[in-house]
Design goal:
Helix 1 (about 15-25) packs across helix 3 (about 45-55) and helix 4 (about 110-125) packs antiparallel against helix 6 (about 180-190). This protein has helices at about 15-25, 30, 45-55, 110-125, 140-150, 180-190, and strands at about 5, 10, 60-70, 75-80, 95-100, 130-135, 155-160, 165-170. The protein is α+β, with helices and mostly antiparallel strands.
């Protein structure tokens, strides 16, 4: 899968080639605190992570690199994957989750919104998904603001995923407005200073 936006390219991860740049994401505790995991301890650990991401990419779903075109550098990950349930919950409901992880130097410039918009469009238009969900920690205001900008509805607090208490958001295909999100992404993309 390859998608482009005004400023970004979304493509598969290349574990050998991308490991150093990905380490700037997953070796940083400011990123991994939201994932509830310790930071990657070495480039080799990050390389193994990227290999798992490559192996997770099946049936149009997966985890991809987000490349900033102006500097030809991986600045984040974007995912569209089945949303896992907590250990004590068995469910036949199959939710698809959108998510993003960006290096701190790229926070606040609208990259997550721009990349997520492209993946929402891909998920609804190319994969025919009926609903796309997102989860976030209760205190992760940055991710919550991205979800609101994307037009996602907050369904409240849930203990159903990742063995944590999280906020659950969702966007149904029939509530998805490609033009509205495109307009939002265009406004975000033209911003040169970090968003707050």
């Amino acid at each position: 899968m390859l998608l482009t936006t005004e400023r970004l390219i979304i493509r598969p991860w290349h574990p050998l080639y991308d490991a150093q740049q990905a380490f700037d994401i997953y070796g940083d505790p400011r990123v991994t605190r939201w994932l509830q995991v310790p930071p990657d301890s070495s480039i080799h650990v990050t390389q193994a992570r990227l290999q798992r991401y490559v192996e997770r990419t099946v049936n149009g779903l997966g985890v991809w690199a987000v490349i900033e075109q102006a500097i030809n550098r991986a600045i984040g990950s974007l995912l569209l994957v089945p949303l896992p349930y907590s250990d004590n919950i068995s469910s036949s409901r199959n939710k698809i989750e959108i998510g993003w992880h960006f290096r701190p130097a790229s926070w606040g410039y609208g990259y997550a919104t721009e990349a997520a918009h492209a993946i929402l469009h891909y998920g609804f238009e190319s994969l025919g998904l009926s609903t796309i969900h997102a989860v976030t920690s209760l205190d992760n205001g940055r991710s919550q603001r991205v979800m609101v900008r994307l037009g996602m509805e907050c369904f409240g607090v849930t203990p159903d995923h990742y063995n944590q208490t999280l906020l659950l958001y969702g966007l149904a295909a029939n509530n998805y407005s490609s033009g509205q999100l495109e307009s939002m992404a265009d406004r975000t993309a033209s911003t040169s200073a970090p968003l707050t």
